Amino acid sequence: MKNFLLFMLLTVTYIYANSIDKADSFYANAEYKKAFKEYEITCKKANSEGCYKVGFMYENKQSVKQDFKKAFLFYEKACNLGNKRACYKVGVCYDKGGILKLKTDYKKAQEYYTKSCKKGFGLSCYNLGSIYQYYLNPKKNKQKSIDMFKKACNNGFLLGCYKVGNILNKNKDIKNAVKWYKKGCDNNDSESCFRLVDIYIKDIAQMNPNNFKQLFNKYKSGCEREDTIMCYKLAIFYATGRGTRQNYIKAKQVYERGCNLGDNASCIEYLMLNDMGF
Length: 278
Fold this sequence. Notes:
Elements: H1 2-28, H2 32-44, H3 48-59, H4 68-80, H5 84-96, H6 106-118, H7 122-134, H8 142-154, H9 159-170, H10 174-186, H11 190-205, H12 212-224, H13 228-240, H14 248-260, H15 264-275
Helix pairs in contact: 1-2, 2-3, 3-4, 4-5, 5-6, 6-7, 7-8, 8-9, 9-10, 10-11, 12-13, 13-14, 14-15
């Protein structure tokens, strides 16, 4: 009996997966009428992705007349079936009005963003952080807001990294601000890179000149161990003549080394020096 039930479960799973694959294939080839029909079939069988795609096609007028109300209803259904993108879509409708221009309801938005965020959708985590920061008892939910921005960052929505860095930087927690800016920068978020650069340059500008030679040797040693932050600061010393003779060519070489080690802040500085003709 157990084997029979397992067989039936696997069969149903295969059929649903096969239907979604078929619908996705039609959609990829811009055969929207066929895709819509297949997505409808899977949605009727309680497939969350099928319901989400039906809602998406109603929202974006793909093979069907644009109907925001129907789109919203299918997003709701898909969310209730566990689709994280659908939960995000419903959350936006309660947060910012969205496709239906609903009356703002931050409690409802919070509910749907939370469902989506728990499933790893970074943008929902970010929007949830913004709701806590600005609308739902900001003073009480200050830490919740930061936690959601961190979660957004960790789930790949890089504006979350930048946001956490800004909050910590504003609170004079520079060490941890650098950590989050660097995380965003290392994943190609240029805004995080620029803030990181600002901190490094400001940090060096405030140093005691008597320590420059000692720090130069420290950064050089660290860079040789492939510490990208040390490479970046070493390059600044070469570029500004701190602790050594000013040498833009050498600075460019060190920035290139940091860039090759995966440090995007170094990549930006390397390209700037390259554009200047060094």
